[in-house]
DNA sequence: GGCATCACG
DNA sequence: ACGTACGTGATGCCT
């Protein structure tokens, strides 16, 4: 096979990158976006082409032969913006550090160098690829010279590839005739004058017919559109000169040395250092310096494609003291299984032939019966996959499972994701190749089929890293006092949540549809009315357009509140013009539009064939330890406004069941009372019916029965404020009072409950000293903000330090309750099941005959989840839908 | 993909 | 003086 050479038009690619990549700056203040884009494009093409030789050509700032030929050519090069100009020498440094040859010569443009080397390489029998952003280069295309033009389409960079025929297909002319076209059409970017009045169409017609400009001129009398004929006659000299300007010189006087261009290992240590300084973090792994360590590890990863061998591996798996596994799936299909049985045994077993998904997971399930410690990532997802293939985990075996993601989350709950790659770096001190690096943007299925070797590496690390990181994760959990939290609360919760998600909640699709249709009618009416009142139609959903109507056209006085313009939030609009019918209609429209899009239409799309909605509870998202619910979010179903609340009527129990809803009464305040140990508050909450009223009576020194509604409302706001990490500003905002008044409320509150203040202060103090806040059950929230010199950030940190222990402890308590409720329902042989958790609320689908037992279990386990100095009270109701039950 | 808005605890 | 309440997720607009 002939050798391949890749020639890169440095100037055009870096320009393209500069304008295509969002501005980036490293911490030294150097702009880096163009370099980043250039390297990304280069890597992509290198991976596709795998050339033997590589050279990048640059322009030199010096007059070329074109300047001598044509005066106006001077100064034609658009001056580079300074932000781009400064990046060019740095890019060259990076390329040189990678051992990549660059070429430039005074008096020559990059095009000419590329053309010259391309032709010479072709003459030596090489396959040539020229990478450029400039279509002029198409004139170089031949059977053996391919021009690649990068093109960004919807964020994905693809390249258009041109050999001779591709040029003809697209432009109807041969590659060399591209010059003729350009000479006729001109090119303002390159200041090639062309022939005025001749555009792409005419130029193409002329060249297709006459072959070149000279011949067209020879037949100028025949030329059909008079406009073209006159133009060519008048500007023929110009066209000839333009042709010379547009012609790439393929025979430059340049001493090119192929040996120097020979491509070696570009991922050098020197390049690593530069990439690190440029802060291209996702590129860094390509340049990893611990490549030797990686290679040693990767060598042991074994691809197992033979059925017998796979069988042996899985038999062996059943006998090890611990293992790690990863199921690779895509679009519901199991593609492969990764298994690490010891430091030296890692297997990647693709699903193929006799090795079916059912067989593979079935055999894995058999092994699970015997292995004392089983590690994976995203255990809940694995359970789902196993269950879909008929594998269930016995209750007694659940304790054997570890989830590395959850362990990493407990150690640092602030991260966005917990990937194998990050675990490798943090807990194994190893930089592993990223998925993008191995497969590019390919799907897993495609990668397995076409890049088996890369898949072996990817799959191998997937379980190897879990195996290697777990001991460290456990050790750190132990050291930080979170091992119990992990083993006794979070891991069992995985199984509880798995059950809830599998169960799903029944939804009356017809009722939901009707609800949506009713909304649509009213929305339509409001729309018409709003357009009438505004005197024109506009997009009511666009805050920008709405702002123009309200503040510019109608002249309502609204302060500019957001970064982008006027704020049109409900808060602003309500204050703005409570009397204005337009504003009132917009508010109602907004409310209905929200209900329709997010809830009526939104939820309908999630009803599965079983007639139920199966949300996903995320266990590793929040900073405080709460759960979150996605696809769809069932933790924010409307309740505060009656119309929205109606939607809860579509959540119904299955036949023979009712919904039972139990929610903790003011759990966070009770947690606060307990954690602070404030005798007054504890005493108050022990017997109180109405906590906010009692707070008001104590804070304002009024008999309980004489507390006014306003006083109660104020006390309630203070109670909330305390939980959020009180600030006089926040409270004043909430109550629409002055800051001073707010400050007085807070002061009085703290006088009444002195230990609360002590406790909150101690939370901040401890967080400052240790760098993290802690819940009653040892859950940590790191708080880097507290060290900030920025007042805003530090204040935020202080509020978080007060809130996290309270919100987090409440989250811990309900997690305990969930596990206990789940366990008891099963232990007592009941069919009723937990369906949802909404932070302080649990929803159960209870068989009517089990109702009494279910209520007893809920009440005992929720109230008994923690021993606090105050009772943990719940409100419990049942109903034929969620509306009634809550 | 960021921003504004709004739904919940 | 600084300029905010704590924690989430979904939708629609717009660059």
UniProtKB/TrEMBL annotation:
The encoding gene: polA
Biological function: In addition to polymerase activity, this DNA polymerase exhibits 5'-3' exonuclease activity.
PANTHER family: DNA POLYMERASE I, DNA POLYMERASE NU
Reaction catalysed by this enzyme: DNA(n) + a 2'-deoxyribonucleoside 5'-triphosphate = DNA(n+1) + diphosphate
Pfam families per record: 5_3_exonuc, 5_3_exonuc_N, DNA_pol_A
Protein name from the UniProt record: DNA polymerase I
SMART domains given in the database record: 53EXOc, HhH2, POLAc
Family the entry assigns: Belongs to the DNA polymerase type-A family.
Domain 5'-3' exonuclease, chain residue ranges per copy: 3-264
């Amino acid at each position: 096979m002939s050798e391949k050479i890749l020639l890169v038009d440095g100037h055009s690619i870096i320009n393209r990158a500069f304008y295509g990549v969002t501005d980036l700056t490293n911490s030294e203040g150097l702009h880096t976006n163009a370099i980043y884009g250039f390297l990304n494009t280069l890597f992509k093409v290198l991976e596709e082409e795998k050339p033997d030789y590589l050279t990048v050509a640059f322009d030199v700032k010096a007059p070329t032969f074109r300047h001598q030929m044509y005066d106006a050519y001077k100064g034609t090069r658009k001056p580079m913006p300074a932000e781009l100009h400064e990046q060019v020498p740095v890019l060259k440094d990076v390329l040189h550090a990678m051992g990549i040859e660059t070429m430039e010569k005074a008096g020559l443009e990059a095009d000419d160098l590329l053309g010259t080397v391309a032709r010479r390489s072709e003459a030596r029998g090489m396959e040539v690829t020229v990478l450029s952003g400039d279509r002029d280069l198409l004139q170089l295309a031949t059977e053996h010279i391919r021009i690649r033009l990068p093109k960004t389409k919807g964020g994905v960079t693809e390249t258009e590839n041109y050999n001779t025929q591709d040029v003809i297909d697209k432009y109807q002319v041969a590659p060399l005739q591209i010059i003729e076209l350009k000479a006729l059409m001109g090119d303002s970017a390159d200041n090639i004058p062309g022939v005025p009045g001749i555009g792409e169409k005419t130029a193409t017609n002329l060249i297709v017919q006459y072959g070149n400009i000279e011949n067209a001129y020879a037949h100028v009398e025949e030329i059909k559109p008079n406009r073209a004929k006159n133009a060519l006659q008048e500007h023929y000299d110009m066209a000839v000169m333009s042709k010379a300007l547009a012609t790439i010189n393929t025979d430059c006087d340049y001493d090119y040395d192929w040996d120097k261009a020979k491509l070696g290992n570009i991922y050098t240590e020197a390049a690593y250092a530069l990439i690190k300084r440029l802060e291209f973090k996702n590129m860094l792994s390509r340049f990893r310096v611990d490549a030797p360590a990686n290679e040693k590890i990767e060598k042991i990863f074994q691809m197992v494609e033979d059925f017998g061998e796979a069988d042996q591996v899985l038999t062996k798996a059943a006998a090890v003291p611990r293992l790690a596994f990863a199921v690779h799936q895509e679009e519901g299909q199991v593609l492969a299984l990764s298994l690490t049985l010891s430091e030296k045994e890692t297997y990647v077993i693709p699903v193929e032939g006799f090795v079916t998904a059912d067989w593979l997971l079935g055999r894995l399930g058999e092994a699970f019966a015997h292995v004392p410690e089983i590690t994976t990532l995203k255990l809940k997802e694995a359970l789902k996959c196993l269950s879909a293939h008929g594998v269930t985990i016995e209750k007694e075996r659940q304790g054997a499972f570890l989830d590395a993601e959850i362990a990493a989350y407990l150690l640092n709950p602030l991260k966005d994701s917990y990937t194998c790659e990050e675990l490798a770096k943090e807990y194994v001190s190893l930089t592993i190749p990223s998925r993008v690096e191995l497969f590019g943007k390919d799907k897993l299925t495609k990668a397995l089929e076409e890049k088996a070797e890369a898949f072996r590496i990817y799959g191998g690390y997937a379980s190897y890293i879990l195996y290697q990181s777990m001991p460290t994760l456990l050790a750190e959990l132990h050291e930080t006092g979170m091992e119990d939290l992990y083993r006794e609360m979070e891991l069992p919760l995985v199984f509880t949540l798995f059950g809830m998600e599998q169960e799903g909640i029944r939804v009356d699709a017809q009722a939901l549809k009707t609800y949506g249709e009713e909304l649509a009618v009213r929305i339509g009416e409001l729309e018409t009315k709003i357009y009438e009142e505004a005197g024109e139609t506009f997009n009511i959903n666009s805050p920008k357009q709405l702002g123009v109507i309200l503040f510019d056209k109608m002249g309502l006085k609204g302060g500019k509140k957001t970064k982008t313009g006027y704020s049109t939030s409900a808060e602003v609009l309500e204050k703005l013009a409570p009397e204005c019918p337009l504003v009132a209609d917009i508010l109602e429209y907004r409310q209905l539009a929200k209900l329709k899009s997010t809830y009526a239409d939104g939820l309908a799309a999630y009803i599965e064939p079983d007639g139920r909605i199966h949300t996903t509870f995320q266990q590793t998202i929040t900073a405080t330890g709460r759960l979150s619910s996605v696809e769809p979010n069932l933790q924010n179903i409307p309740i505060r406004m009656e119309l929205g609340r109606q939607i809860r009527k579509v959540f119904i129990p299955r036949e023979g069941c009712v919904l039972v809803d139990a929610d903790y009464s003011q759990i966070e305040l009770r947690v606060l009372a307990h954690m602070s140990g404030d005798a007054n508050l504890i005493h108050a909450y022990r017997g109180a019916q109405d906590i906010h009223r009692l707070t008001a009576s104590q804070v304002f020194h009024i008999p309980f029965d004489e507390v006014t509604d306003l006083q109660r409302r104020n006390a309630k706001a203070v109670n909330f404020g305390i939980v959020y990490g009180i600030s006089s500003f926040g409270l004043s905002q909430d109550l629409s009072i002055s800051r001073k008044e707010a400050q007085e409320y807070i002061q009085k509150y703290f006088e009444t409950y002195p230990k609360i203040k002590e406790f909150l202060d101690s939370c901040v103090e401890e967080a400052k000293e240790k760098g993290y806040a802690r819940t009653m059950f040892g859950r940590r929230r790191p708080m880097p903000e507290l060290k900030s010199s920025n007042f805003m950030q530090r204040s935020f940190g202080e509020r978080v330090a007060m809130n996290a222990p309270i919100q987090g402890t409440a989250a811990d308590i309900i997690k305990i309750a969930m596990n206990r409720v789940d366990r008891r329902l099963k232990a007592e042989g009941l069919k009723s099941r937990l369906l949802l958790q909404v932070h302080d609320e649990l929803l159960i689908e209870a068989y009517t005959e089990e109702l009494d037992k279910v209520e007893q279990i809920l009440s005992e386990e929720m109230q008994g989840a923690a021993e606090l100095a105050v009772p943990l009270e719940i409100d419990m109701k049942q109903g034929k839908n969620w509306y009634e039950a809550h």
